């Protein structure tokens, strides 16, 4: 029997079938992939590629939608997995489509949004997706080439399994949908076979675990649309590529215009540094990153008088704001992100130092602290250091001490700077002398006198006299001080010829 050659009507029908995808009714708690795209892009701006991929195999678009649309009028490339088609798994053409759009993003310097919902490589097509030059490894290679050149933002709507878990890992930000999103190198069944461990998918790779324990997730959302909306918002803080500054917006006043007295004079009393941030930045603009992980440090993007800034702040209400292994990594990655995309950095210091003890030394606190300090020192964007209260030990250095060339070191009246607190310093220097004094009153008087001497050595007037701080301002004046200094930094340009770095994974 002679085969019938497909005509124009057959092509149109094939395209319609591809747009429909699989059966979304099988996943009633998920938005269909094209509904996700409708939230991401400005209406009518999405131009799709490869719609007919695998049409002759009955796999609509081969399980992935790729193309370019506009987000707030700016062109953005997208990779969006369709979980209704073979669980969003990757075959030869799935990989080819993703490679092609990433090549275009690299050529045209387009930001990339990844709407990930994939069970991983399609084992029935393993020679297509796995070993060759145009397989999955080429996708990761392109992601790394793009890193630090254009923003890469991921919304994780479902699984991201096996090697495919590295797609989110190479992105600058990962928003995960609670209950659906998961990221893992092996399923619980495979893990049990290999290690004997019995676990659940949520425990091993769920959204909340990655947002609170591993740090691989940046935020958790209840629904698909919230994750996509957050991705759109994040892109508004970032430039199109590494050559451009972030876009300015009309300034708005802070949420907390009066915050005198918010920072307690007693260094042992906690407070929420987010309240300080609300007194500095434009109201409603603080976009916190990794809020659930390593909470002793707060990082995020905001606008200050309309300009985008990155904030790195110690959190005195959590573990006294000391820097631990995870918080050092959190800071290093965020600083690297800001430096890659020309976002000035503001450090808000209230730090007793790096955490000490056997456990953190075994975890490599020195190595992780060095990563944070190296990222901060390498950042060429304008940097400003604000001392809110205590700035002690190597934590002071890591939060951009004067030796690391901030544009300015600014203090509010509650600030103290020193190698350690006065009381701790007295105990370290005079331990033997103190122990030798048998009279309680005499011992207390000796300690009080030596402590007063130490405080005099590290007080704010001394720091100003010796040019350790460049300005002392009242809390209510800090926003205006920083805004004026950011205007002065507008003429900043990057050192010519410097290789632009990637945004290194934590």
Give a brief outline of the structure:
39% of the residues lie in helices and 18% in strands. With 506 residues, the protein is of the alpha/beta class. α3 packs parallel to α5, α12 runs parallel beside α14 and α16 packs across α18.
Give an account of the 3D structure.
By secondary structure, this protein is of the alpha/beta class. The chain contains 20 helices and 16 strands. The protein has helices at residues 8-20, 33-40, 92-108, 126-129, 136-146, 166-169, 188-195, 201-205, 207-214, 224-237, 273-280, 325-340, 358-363, 365-378, 393-398, 422-429, 431-436, 440-458, 460-465, 475-488, and strands spanning 47-49, 64-71, 74-81, 112-118, 152-161, 173-177, 182-184, 219-221, 287-289, 297-304, 307-314, 345-351, 383-392, 408-411, 416-418, 471-472. Helix 12 links the parallel strand 11 and strand 12 (345-351). Helix 3 (92-108) packs parallel to helix 5 (136-146) and helix 12 (325-340) packs parallel to helix 14.
């Amino acid at each position: 029997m002679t085969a019938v050659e497909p005509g124009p009507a057959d092509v149109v029908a094939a395209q319609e079938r591809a747009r429909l995808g699989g059966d979304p009714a099988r996943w009633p708690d998920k938005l269909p992939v094209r509904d996700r795209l409708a939230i991401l892009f400005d209406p009518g701006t999405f131009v799709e590629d490869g719609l007919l991929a695998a049409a002759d195999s009955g796999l609509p678009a081969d399980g992935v939608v790729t193309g370019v649309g506009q987000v707030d009028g700016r062109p953005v490339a997208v990779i969006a997995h369709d979980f209704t088609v073979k669980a969003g798994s990757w075959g030869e053409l799935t990989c080819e489509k993703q490679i092609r759009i990433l090549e275009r993003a690299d050529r045209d310097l387009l930001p990339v949004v990844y709407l990930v919902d994939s069970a991983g490589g399609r084992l029935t097509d393993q020679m297509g997706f796995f070993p060759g030059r145009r397989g999955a490894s080429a996708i990761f290679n392109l992601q790394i080439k793009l890193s630090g050149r254009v923003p890469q933002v991921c919304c994780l709507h479902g699984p991201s399994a096996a090697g495919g878990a590295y797609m989110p890992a190479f992105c600058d930000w990962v928003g995960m949908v609670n209950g659906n999103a998961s990221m893992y190198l092996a399923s619980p069944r495979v893990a049990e076979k290999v290690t004997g461990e019995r676990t659940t998918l949520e425990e091993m790779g769920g959204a909340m675990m990655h947002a609170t324990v591993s740090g691989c997730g940046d935020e958790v959302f209840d629904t698909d649309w919230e994750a996509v909306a957050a991705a759109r918002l994040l892109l508004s803080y970032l430039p199109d590529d590494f050559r451009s500054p972030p876009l300015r917006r009309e300034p708005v006043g802070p949420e907390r215009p009066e915050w005198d007295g918010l920072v307690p004079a007693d260094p042992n009393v906690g407070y929420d540094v987010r309240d300080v941030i609300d007194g500095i930045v434009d109201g409603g603009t603080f976009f916190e990153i990794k809020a659930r992980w390593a909470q002793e440090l707060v990082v995020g993007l905001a606008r200050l008088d309309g300009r985008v800034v990155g904030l790195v702040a110690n959190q005195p209400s959590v573990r006294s704001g000391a820097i631990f292994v995870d918080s050092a990594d959190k800071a290093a990655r965020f600083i690297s992100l800001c430096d890659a995309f020309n976002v000035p950095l503001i450090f808000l210091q209230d730090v007793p130092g790096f955490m000490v003890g056997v456990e953190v030394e075994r975890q490599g606190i020195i190595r992780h602290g060095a990563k944070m300090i190296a990222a901060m020192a390498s950042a060429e964007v304008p940097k400003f250091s604000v001392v809110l209260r205590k700035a002690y030990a190597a934590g002071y250095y890591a939060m951009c001490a004067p030796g690391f060339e901030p544009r300015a070191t600014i203090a509010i009246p509650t600030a103290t700077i020193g190698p350690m607190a006065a009381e701790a310093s007295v105990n370290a220097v005079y331990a033997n002398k103190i122990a030798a004094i048998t009279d309680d009153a005499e011992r207390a008087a000796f300690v009080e006198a030596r402590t007063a001497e130490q405080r005099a050595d590290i007080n704010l007037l001394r720091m100003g006299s010796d040019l350790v701080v460049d300005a002392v301002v009242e809390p209510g004046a800090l926003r205006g001080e920083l805004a004026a200094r950011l205007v002065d930094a507008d003429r900043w340009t990057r050192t010519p010829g410097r290789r632009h770095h990637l945004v290194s994974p934590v």
